[in-house]
Amino acid sequence: MPSPPPDLLAQLLKDVERTSGMEITCTRDCEVLSEELRAFDGRFPVSVSTLRRCFGLIEAKGSFSQTTLNTLARYVGHPSFRAWSSNLQDSATAVNARNLAQFSGLGKVNLSPEATAASAQPTEMPSARRGADDVMPKSAVEAQAIVESFIHRFADPKQFHLSPKEFSILKAAVFDIYERGNFDVAQWMQVVSHEHLLRFVVEQFPPLDFMSTFGWPMVEAFNDVFRAPSDAMYGHGILASGLVARDEPWSRVLNHLPQLNALNPGIHPLVQARAIGMQLLAAQEGNSRDSTWEQAKSLALLGLREDKNIWPRWAHQNCYFAFNLADWAVLSRDREIIEVVSGNIQAFRAEQDWYNRSGTIETILSIRQVWNWISLDRKDDALQLMESVEWPILHSFEVRTLGMWYHAARLVLGLAPKELCEANLRYAVNLTGYSGFGRRIQALVENHGLG
After folding, report:
1. pLDDT, tens digit, for every residue of 141-197?
2. What is the DSSP string of 378-407?
3. Omega of the bond prior to 79 within 30 degrees of 0, cis?
């Protein structure tokens, strides 16, 4: 297929730059964009050299493949290059950053009069360079409208494809709904009726802070539909962690807790780390066979030390295995595992691309590392790091649970009055209903002489 006309290709590349939030002017920009395209859809990567040719940094000999054109078009929110080009004349939204009214699809959705009135005025789509606060819905009605439009727009799985900006807006809306605790039952049933949307919502927006309320039936609905080994480990792992958090008996936890005998390179490391961490805690608290501890510890150390050899490259974007094993290792009080987790986090931070750093992930990793160092009797290191933590964090589906760890660490390190830290810790426990986490974290505090 011949290359598209230069002006058409130039317009597509402008859309790519607008979506990525940066102007592509050098090879390093192409490297960053190539990684972002790979993270967006790993099935269709675009090489750095191809991007350099596209953006005119080196001479373009020959035409660009249909695969490359389709990948770029999907990145900016269209099913294919053909769909993007045919819509170019019909909608200015393919040229300009989409606005919130277009994303909400208000003309296609039967909304209440209040919702229609609240969303009647077009709102500029937040720039990728603006703060997270700018993406948040202005009201519960607006958040519901965004989710409603998402359901109607993507009910057909063949049309299901969000641009990065659309994903950010949807995430903010779901987060707002979670925070308000007002997920409309009728709206949720619409999600459940479309398997691809059910999978997307539960996997991308796991209700980690809300397993005492609406989160439980959400994940149960996921488990009723998706039963492949990887899906079962994901869904039942979240249910098991919710039971541990709520201080339910281990007999109930073990009914859901996935049992791993080996690490699986085809299953997300975060999912396996959660299961292994709970196995460690169950054994440490005397609720499994003696052999379970040794097996779980062996798998934990193997995953930490050989992660780059076990899982593909995408699995290391956010230090997933150590990231999700860290809090369970601290609760299990295994010094050897904690030391290796700490080393993995330090190594990840030393080699991470600065451009792709996430403020939320950085804060969570810092809190994890603070507790690693507290557990390893390195309080000076913990204190120095804790003083740099920015709190609270935005758009995290476990911010309330993290609040327990945050305020308990400030108590241990003497960064705030004891009464204030204890009050904040109790508040986080009451907010989540996670008395099990609260009890265990309080025990860690007492272990360091501050109970």
Report:
1. 888 899 999 999 999 998 888 888 889 899 999 998 998 876 788 899 999 999 999
2. -HHHHHHHHTT---S-SS-TTHHHHHHHHH
3. no
Span 126-150, pLDDT tens digits: 333 334 445 678 788 888 899 999 9
Q: Three-class SS of residue 420?
A: helix
Q: Which residues contact 377 (CB under 8 A, 6 or more apart)?
A: none
Token look-up 């949307």 returns 197
- Residue 92 pLDDT > 60, yes or no? no
Find the DSSP H helices in 76-163: 81-88, 100-104, 113-118, 140-153
pTM of this prediction exceeds 0.70:
yes
> Cα–Cα distance between 412 and 33 in angstroms, integer?
42
For residue 201, give every residue at least 6 positions away whose Cβ sits within 8 Å of its Cβ, in sequence order, or none. Answer: 174, 191, 218
Span 233-254, pLDDT tens digits: 999 999 999 999 999 999 999 9
- CA–CA distance from 413 to each of 246, 329, 338, 388, 442 (Å)? 26, 20, 19, 13, 14
Q: How do the domains of the chain map onto residue ranges?
A: 6-94, 100-200, 259-351, 358-451
Query: Minimal CA–CA distance to 253: which of 221, 278, 225, 290?
Result: 278
Looking at 21-112, list the stretches that DSSP marks H as alpha helix, in order from N- to C-terminal side.
27-40, 48-54, 66-75, 81-88, 100-104
Return the exposure string of 247-286: e unless at least 16 CB atoms fall within 10 Å of the residue's CB, then b. eeebeebbebbbebeebbeebbbbbbbbbbbbbbbbbbee
Q: What was the pLDDT predicted at 356?
A: 67
